[in-house]
Amino acid sequence: MFLFFFEKIRGTKINSDRLCIAGKDWKSVRPIKKWGIHREMVIARHGRQWKRLWTGCGAGGAPARQLWLTVIQRGVNGAQQWSTAVKRGRGNLQLTTTVIPSPHIPIDQSNDKMVANGKEVDHFSDEEDSDLEIDYTDIEERFRPKFQDTFDNLIVVEGAPIVDESKRGRLIKAIISTFAKKDLKISESKIEMPLDPNNQSKGYLFIELNSPQDADRAVRNLHDYPFDKKHRFTVIKFTEVERFAHVAENFVKPVLEEYKPRSHLKSWLADPQGRDQMIIYQGDDVKVAWHGRNGAPDVAHKRTKWTDAYCAWSPDGTMLATIHNQGVALWGGANFDRIHRLYHPKVKLIDFSPMENYLVTWSDQPIELPTDPQAPQIFSEDDEGNSIAVWDVVTGKLLRTFPVLTPSSEEEGGARIKFQWPMFKWSGDDRYLARVTPGQAISVYETPGMGLLDKKSIKIEGVVDFEWCPLSENERDAILEARNLLPSASFDEPSSDSKPKKNAGERSNMLAFWTPEVANQPARVSLMNIPSRDTLRSKNLFNVHDAKIHWQSNGDYVCVKVDRHTKTKKTTYCNLELFRVRDKSFPVDVIEIKDTVTAFAWEPKGNRFILITSNDPNLSQGPTPGTTIKTNIHFFGMDVKKGDFRLFKTYDGKTCNSVHWSPKGRHVVTATLGSSSKCDLEFWDTDLDESDKDLGSGISLLSSVEHYGMTELEWDPSGRYLASIGSMWLSSLECGYTIWDFKGELMHKVTLERFKQLLWRPRPRSLLSKETQRKIRKNLREYSKQFEEEDQLEASNVSAELVAHRRRLLDEWDSWRRHSKQELATEASRAGKLSAAQKAADPADSEQIEEWIEEVIEETETML
């Protein structure tokens, strides 16, 4: 099939008189005026093929910015080819070809010529004033230029400085620069700035952007944007002007949604039996269950596909967080109504602040601005490419996003960047969050503004890691009282003497950090005050291989576990650097451990800690199947009389590798996790029959049990029960969970397929004053009698239900037996047989047998 194609025609100029095209074989060129628009008709010949070319131009002969060209072409099989050329700019035509059959132009197949209105096309001449009566409306409608009839790419910017004509150029350049900062490119020709009769600008201007999407971005990123100290932009789309211009004169009060009060977020604390709750995640089902006295769960709430990944409680148990592909959902109340939806696509990890005011989310995929206009418009241009987001839990608003530090093989100061979570660490009062740039600095940000403290990071050469000092109960109470979130006295006995002190909530935070050996400088552990950045205490260390910082829960002590190596670097040993933070000058106790320390744990709210050490040669090879690593357990504590830490007791020949203190202290569990051959649980009491002479005499092993396939342990908030869990996420050989009491006695055990997660619901701090708590402990025996009666009543209720169930089963059996006997007798009578009862009806054939049964009613012994 013949294809007629202009690749490029240069030097083309079109007007109402003539068409000048460099080429040959053009039959005729004649002007035609139709519908008030000047057109040029061109008949071209290429061999035996004839073409008619229509070129449109602007009215009055002005050159058109866009024009169309139609080619009527005779094909080999009698088809017609229609071609369109669009002028992309003056002097540049490009022609494309499509095949469309048309009934408007007849074709003479006999002589292979194109005819129109009964005449051959070849017979037309330049002088002939004959017009072809051919209907081209469908073609012209199809190829008619489409002009932009929308104003979606126009915006109105109000709040610009008012300047005269002399400063107009400078202002426009400044506006173009401001838009460029938001990655919006505009030119001066696309800015219209109206002027008043005095040649003064009116404070607003119109800007044409490249696309409606750019206009949306401009409104999103530049509305309420500070242009300078005195001027702030107000940006709206041009299409919104009409809506604002037709605002009704009379105010119409908007229809407000009916207020629906939420259920109390701490309603579970009002349970009459004082039970704790837990999350049980199995398969696609998530259950919130009460934990009864017998250990069996009582399901209170259940949902299918409640989460796409996992669940997490807030630190005080107020809210439940579920992870989804679109972000994080927060739930609370008796019915677990949704509180907020935090939009962060592909979120993987979350972290609550200690006082539940903020939430940090992380996604392995950088933030991208959504192209779907219906998607939540949470992020701005500045957030694009970041992976960490910080949210206000109360309002659900995004506070700020951060990028993830790019890992590299080696950073400044010899520090390696490793992925660790949480990436940001919170101070105990939620005032600050900080993260470390290994080898360089610690960046501290203030809440809620999320600005950098003093607008600069804390430069620390070689810094590796840091930890915030936790708050004590008294400090936490003082902060809550200052914020009017906690009563300053007991509910039972309000007193005017227990008013919070002035500025009680104000407290200087503290963090501990360590730096390795760099060049000739020794390694160093330091305590720093925040926000003053003063170094409170520092200690130099030598031959340091690694260090870990462990704060006691009340912030009274901090232990820096330092792994050191000999000068030959062939063997390693450990030092414990114990800082007494509450004492003057921050004294340091040093305990040297010759073996490798594999686990360390402080007693909550106490001054004791446990070490697990090992000198097994297989330890350096890591966990291998069938290999059991021998370990030793060491109990340390504070000797009040001598004022230093000392070793209380050591137990050798163990296999445990993890320590789990009860939240209330005193009781502790050591366990063997991650081993395919050992799964031991050892329950210890550290205060059993303790004497003043021997401080370690109260440490006793209560019981030793096993749970095959366990992968993790969870204490309930009361410290009375422990859950050993076998999760499919950690490739457990036996998925399920077991509930133990604090003595190691089995309460409840269940094996579940596709079991994933068990989480106890945390409890907030008690609202009772310490004096009220002391009174309760003093009268605990009276309360224990009441509890025993409730336990007996509950047990009797269970027994009554069991007896009623058994009686019902027995009645059903008796009824079935009587019915079966009647059916058997009926069938026997039909067969003419006598039943056993009928055969025994004759007294002569029967025999009566009497049997005496003796029973001792009472037995009395008399001493002679």
UniProtKB/TrEMBL annotation:
Q: What does this protein do?
A: Component of the eukaryotic translation initiation factor 3 (eIF-3) complex, which is involved in protein synthesis and, together with other initiation factors, stimulates binding of mRNA and methionyl-tRNAi to the 40S ribosome. RNA-binding component of the eukaryotic translation initiation factor 3 (eIF-3) complex, which is involved in protein synthesis of a specialized repertoire of mRNAs and, together with other initiation factors, stimulates binding of mRNA and methionyl-tRNAi to the 40S ribosome. The eIF-3 complex specifically targets and initiates translation of a subset of mRNAs involved in cell proliferation.
Which is one Pfam family of this protein?
A: eIF2A
The organism encoding this protein is Puccinia graminis f. sp. tritici
Q: What is its main location?
A: cytoplasm
The record's listing under SUPFAM superfamilies reads: DPP6 N-terminal domain-like, RNA-binding domain, RBD
Give the family this protein belongs to, as stated in its UniProt record. Belongs to the eIF-3 subunit B family.
Could you tell me where this protein is found in the cell? Cytoplasm
Task: State what protein this is by name.
Answer: Eukaryotic translation initiation factor 3 subunit B
The reply to whether Nucleus figures as a keyword in the UniProt entry is no
Describe the location of the Translation initiation factor beta propellor-like domain by residue ranges.
Answer: 539-757
Instruction: Report which superkingdom the organism of origin falls in.
Output: Eukaryota
Region spans: Disordered: 827-847
From the UniProt record, report the name of the gene that encodes this protein: PRT1_2
